[in-house]
Amino acid sequence: MDEVEVVVAHSERATLRVGDVFVKVDADQSRLDAEVEAMTLAPVPTPQVLWRKPPALAIAALPGTTVGSLGGPATGAPTAWAAAGAAMRTLHDAPLPPRPGRAGRSVASLVVELDDECEWLVTHGVLPADLVTRNRQVAEAAFRPWTPAFTHGDLQIAHVFVDGDEVTGIIDWSEAGRGDALYDLATFTLGHEERLDDVIAGYGTDVDLDVIRAWWSLRSLLVIRWLVQHGFDPFAPGCEVDVLKARM
Fold it and tell me: Which of 11, 43, 66, 119 is 20 to 30 A off residue 169, Cα-Cα?
């Protein structure tokens, strides 16, 4: 190894790569606790924990590649997307973990958070009012009763690795816990609506498409302020703002 690669870095956490080792440094010890616990319990492939010394966690690199990226092309074959769907179903059918996760927030707390973010987006001129209003309406479909499942809570496309049609591992479990299974499916297909059918085919059961679309809108509205304030670009082609525009 001859260099240290900064994979992601912001005020809350940083991930570095040194050869085949990833080192996560997190200001919140509870997130590392949750991550290690979830990887221990999850019935799907996860990275090997090499060592842990707060505030850092070292994990081994996974074989394989992702099936695409947010804002980039969907590079994986339909069978790879289906394999990711099957892995999600395995996770969601597993015994419930002990703690609630990111996907398990109550409807009441989500409504308050969503209203705050929508107001901020409009009053600060980040997005047009009609775009925010329309997606706020679409998001309503996510506010319904749901059966708790073992959820990843941040199942971005960059967090699932495949080799051919086999999932080789899923990373970044700090938001895992009891939650709404459709949140995971929506997060994974965010910006790649055209691959949703492949994922559902692998998932192996019907899902409410209106709820998936609602989570696309809801997740995008909730994260834009954070992304802007932490140096990311939700306006990049194919990213969160384009996801919102697709609902118009």
Answer: 11
Domain-embedded: residue 1:
no
Q: Using one digit for the tens of pLDDT, what is the confidence trace for 209-247?
A: 999 999 999 999 999 999 999 999 999 999 999 999 999
* Domain containing residue 134: CATH number: 3.90.1200.10
Task: Look at residue 12 and tell me whether its pLDDT is greater than 90.
Answer: no
- Taking the C-alpha atoms of residue 168 and residue 25, their distance in angstroms, rounded to an integer, is 24
Both structure tokens of 107: 């409807």
In a domain, 79, yes or no: yes
Cβ contacts of residue 122 below 8 Å, gap of 6+?
Answer: 128, 129, 132
Q: Return the structure tokens found at 246.
A: 């697709």
**What residue numbers bound the domain in which 175 lies?**
64-245
CB atoms near residue 193 (< 10 Å): 14
Q: Give yes or no for a contact between 58 and 20, defined as CB atoms under 8 angstroms apart.
A: no
**Residue 212 in contact with residue 182, Cβ under 8 Å?**
yes
Structure tokens at 219: 């997740």
Cβ contacts of 210 within 8 Å, gap of 6 or more: 141
User: Structurally, how many domains does the chain consist of?
Assistant: 1
- Structural domain includes residue 86: yes
Asked if 94 and 199 count as a contact pair (C-beta separation under 8 A), the reply is no
d(CA 129, CA 115): 13
What predicted TM-score, i.e. pTM, was given to this entire model? 0.95
Which segments of 93-170 does DSSP mark as H helices, in order?
107-123, 129-139
